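Lab notes, practical 5.
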Amino acid sequence: DYGCTDATAINYDASATCDDGSCIPIQLGCTDPTACNYDTTANTDDGSCNYPSTSFYTINECNSYTWNGTTYNSSGTYTYSTVNAAGCDSTAILNLTINNSSSSTLDTTVCNSFTWNDSTYTQSGTDTYITTNASGCYHTDTLSLHINDSPNTTVVLGSTQVGFLQQETYSVVQ
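Output from the prediction step:
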C-alpha cells in the first residue's frame, strides 16, 4: 500500500508500507478564522488563538466622569476602541449615569437673631451647609442673612415707660 509513512505527518497512514511522497508536515498555529492571529498555513491548532475582546462598565457618578481621557457630563452609552494585550481589537462599552449636585439659597432679613440648621446667628453674613441629595450627590444650601438689630425705642404712655421689643419694664416716679 502506498501512502504517507511519516508518523509525524498530519496525514500519516499506518497501513501504508510504501511512502508515496504525499506526507504533509504538521504546521502548528491558530486555525480559527475568527481569531485575530489566524494562521492560514497552520493545519494543527496549538491553542494560541487570540480573540477580539469586549468589556462592559456601568458607572453612576456625580456631575461628570472621566474615562480613557475623555470627560463626560451627561448620561449615555459610550464606546472606546483600542488594541488588547494580545494585539486584537478591544472594545469597552460604558453605560454612564450622571447625577447632578444641587443647591439652594435662602436670602432673608430678620431682627436680632436667626436659627438655621441648628446654628443661631446674631450677625449678618453668608454661610453654607452641605448635605447629600436624593441622587447621592452634594447639595449645598447657602444662607445670605441680614440681621437688623431692634432699636432701643422707648414709648411713653402716661407716666409709665415701656421698653419696646425688650424684656425689661421701666417705671417713672412722678
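Observations recorded by the TA: The radius of gyration is 42 Å. Residues 159-172 have pLDDT under 50 and may be disordered.
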